[in-house]
Write a sequence for this structure.
């Protein structure tokens, strides 16, 4: 399962 | 984290602080007697702040930071999210509910039907997104909405005769933060492999372009040392 695109920007 | 993004976040934080300072100034006027000229000006003229834009921003943060408790990025990230969520909702509360601050809000001028911005952004987010999941669609929605959230505020400024300094600075900082983010995206594109987020980049570019004319009038008012005025 591709890593959830964790959004690291505000 | 890079210097552009940190500068962008700090500029964004500054814009929120300027707005909170403005609200505090209006509030503190109430206690004083009337002769204080600043109070008279603040309470008599409209604050020039668009409640519609503040509400849109509260919605932007609410839909963008859904992962605040599920995806821990860093302490900095979590703290900034809490600050932006807390400040945007409290600003909406102040303008709507606070007995003094709401008097300085001119609802007859702030007539932009922001619902017409929310729906198209939601539809667009349902069609164009990186992944069709609940969080991702709402995150994309928040990007589209933030790009246009400043419109009610810019239109209100065109209608406001004398834009006071704090309001002008607030809008300037809000526009500048996203411009700095564009530099951050360019930097990350060249330094991080596979860092490509077209949706974020295009929304951010559109958002910054919407400030173009404001920036022009803002800088020319600074250069000529005259009051900031937007043509109607």
């Amino acid at each position: 399962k591709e890593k959830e695109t964790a959004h690291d920007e505000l | 984290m890079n210097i552009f993004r940190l500068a962008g976040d700090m500029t964004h934080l500054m814009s929120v602080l300027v707005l909170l300072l403005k609200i505090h100034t209006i509030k503190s006027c109430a206690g004083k007697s009337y002769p204080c000229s600043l109070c008279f000006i603040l309470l008599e003229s409209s604050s020039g702040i668009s409640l519609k834009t503040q509400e849109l921003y509260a919605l932007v943060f609410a839909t963008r930071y859904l992962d605040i408790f599920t995806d821990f990025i860093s302490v900095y990230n979590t703290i900034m999210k809490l600050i932006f969520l807390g400040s945007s909702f409290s600003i909406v509360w102040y303008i709507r509910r606070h007995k003094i601050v709401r008097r300085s809000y001119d609802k007859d001028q702030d007539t932009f039907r922001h619902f017409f911005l929310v729906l198209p952004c939601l539809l667009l987010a349902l069609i164009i997104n990186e992944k069709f999941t609940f969080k991702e669609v709402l995150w994309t929605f928040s990007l589209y909405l933030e790009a246009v959230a400043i419109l009610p505020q810019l239109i209100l400024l065109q209608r406001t005769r004398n834009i006071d300094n704090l309001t002008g600075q607030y809008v300037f900082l809000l526009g500048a933060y996203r411009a700095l983010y564009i530099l951050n995206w360019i930097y990350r594109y060249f330094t991080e492999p596979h860092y490509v987020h077209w949706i974020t980049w295009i929304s951010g570019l559109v958002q910054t372009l919407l400030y173009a004319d404001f920036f022009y009038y803002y800088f020319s008012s600074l250069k000529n040392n005259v009051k900031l005025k937007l043509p109607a």
In short: Residues 1 and 7 of chain A are 17 Å apart (CA to CA). The mean pLDDT of chain A is 69.
